[in-house]
Amino acid sequence: MSYPQGQYPPPHQQPYGPPGQPYQGHPQWGHPQPGYSPQPPGYPYGAPPPANMPGKLLGVRITMFILGGIGLLFSGVCALVLWAGSEAGGGQTDLLADFPPEVFLVILLITGVYGVLSVGLAALMGKRSQAVWWLVVIFQGCAAVWCLWGVLAGNGGSSVPLIFAVALFGSLLPRSCREYYRGYA
């Protein structure tokens, strides 16, 4: 219905249809339309997952970045010690006097691999993939077992990394952390 320019419909007439009927041009709030699912796709179990990373997961992620950085730093120090020993003309330097170079090479490899994996997995934790969550759980479990093996073999220096690995592993298991990744491929 059109009205001449400058005129409006009479006040008793609804411009969008008969009185008491909602406007049919858009879906009404609280009333799902046919073919419309109010839940996100791939998430059939009730309320949607939290939008922000839970605090425990965020703590695990930050700690993994820090510990991975420390591992890479130790790896760099060991590489520097090995380089200094090789520059000394094959002779023993003060740093290598008590330990053979192979010890530093093993420490370089272990801390370097741990650092790269820890930083890499921490960077991937924001992707909300169940595969990433499982990789982090397995990584922390393996780190805990490795450190426990070191403690049981008599290496007291493995006790501090063991505490961190067990704490991080335990922080990954609460329901809120699992729900954050649930429903995502």
TrEMBL record:
Keywords: Membrane, Transmembrane, Transmembrane helix. Residues 7-21, 35-45 have a biased composition (Pro residues). Residues 1-45 are annotated as: Disordered. The chain crosses the membrane at residues 62-83, 103-124, 131-152, 158-174. Residues 22-34 have a biased composition (Low complexity). This is Integral membrane protein.
